């Protein structure tokens, strides 16, 4: 069955299932950030290994997103979505019982693979089920679930870590995953394919995943020489991938989408820059609030919720607004507000009042809300129906790669300023220096993103 959801499958059910999965991924990312100091203590991890507990998950989901988006377009989006939720649920269980750093990081990689299957298909299923006039609203609800996941992550993660230990942060996903599996198996009829019968581009997938992993892993090894070589290999891999895709009969990523579709290209670039500039904010502040400010996980979580909660409140409004007003205007204004918030964080020190931190998080959250839904709407509205899966995977890939790059910047600063040690009081001033430099880089990045967002041109 193609494109529109059939009558048996109410659009509401598709919205429910994809919205639940849109909640999982960010919840996992943001709740683990709060648990990191506790994980570091129990498994005795240094600052850089702590970064890897967060980054391994992001990296594997980024590397597999586009291939799974393509497979979903060919073999059915519901099928890949279902396999994704199964892998995610099993790996959450395994992460919760891991007994060493190596085990935990390996299971986080597996969790990322499951997430890539979900993220590549959820938005595509929604876009298939909803006609153009209602799509902005549905995507707005979906994005809101992402932010509710981000919002509840620090709070629930803090409460769970404090009262039940860090393992509970992973184990809480298991019952939720089982509910989604049950709904998909019993209630969702039919499947959506936009590119059935086409061949899967295996070479392109391997080149793409290799290039992305080399690039990002290399980034975290800087300034050592192996890091430089891996980055060079990653860049070479990406250019080989681009050349291969331009010749391939059924490419996993239609490069013409970028070459001939200005709105698609610049909307994706803007998303990449936005996530690169903002994702590590919560990671850095989680460590800052617990180490430097001495807060417990629960209190730190309640402060960090300010940013995603603001995003959750204003995203649906921004999504609806983008059905009526030119998306680039709203998205670019959002990017400017986010830049202002990042500039304020450059001035953080030991004495910074918690009110200032909360207020700045609200500002960044509001900017992000204005940016995200309109930007997603712009990307999905700029492609034809057969490319929904790949476009949806591309949006998610930009988000993932941006997040990993953001964590890479933070980890690189740790390497340069602190080195491979556990963050103890004698290293707090070095930690603050590394954080300040990170925020300077993020503010400059975000400022450049305003121009990428403006450059996309008119969608309507």
Entry summary:
Helices cover 81% and strands 0% of the residues.
Can you describe this structure?
- The protein is mainly α and 460 residues long.
- The protein has 18 helices and no strands.
- Helix 2 (47-75) packs parallel to helix 4, helix 11 (262-278) runs antiparallel to helix 16 (354-381) and helix 15 packs antiparallel against helix 18 (428-454).
- The longest helix has 33 residues, at 132-164.
- The chain is globular and about 60 Å long.
Largest sheet, if any? Answer: none
Portion in helices = over 70%
Note poorly predicted spans.
1-5
* Number of domains as seen in the coordinates: 2
Examine the coordinates and then state which fold CATH places here, giving the name of the CATH topology of the largest domain.
Answer: Growth Hormone, Chain: A
Round the mean pLDDT to the nearest integer and report it: 87
Q: What is the CATH homology-level superfamily of the largest domain?
A: MFS general substrate transporter like domains
Tell the overall outline: globular
Order of helices and strands: HHHHHHHHHHHHHHHHHH
Q: What is Rg?
A: 21 Å
Number of helices: 18
Notable traits:
460 residues, mainly alpha, 18 helices, single chain, disordered N terminus, Growth Hormone, Chain: A, 2 domains
What is the secondary structure topology, with strand pairs?
Layout (H helix, E strand, L loop, with lengths): L10 H32 L4 H29 L1 H20 L4 H29 L2 H33 L2 H5 L1 H15 L14 H20 L3 H23 L7 H5 L2 H17 L1 H13 L4 H8 L1 H19 L2 H19 L8 H28 L6 H30 L10 H27 L6
Helix pairs in contact: 1-2, 1-4, 1-5, 1-7, 1-12, 2-3, 2-4, 2-8, 2-17, 3-4, 3-7, 4-17, 5-13, 5-14, 5-16, 8-9, 8-17, 11-15, 11-16, 11-17, 11-18, 12-13, 12-18, 14-16, 15-16, 15-18, 17-18
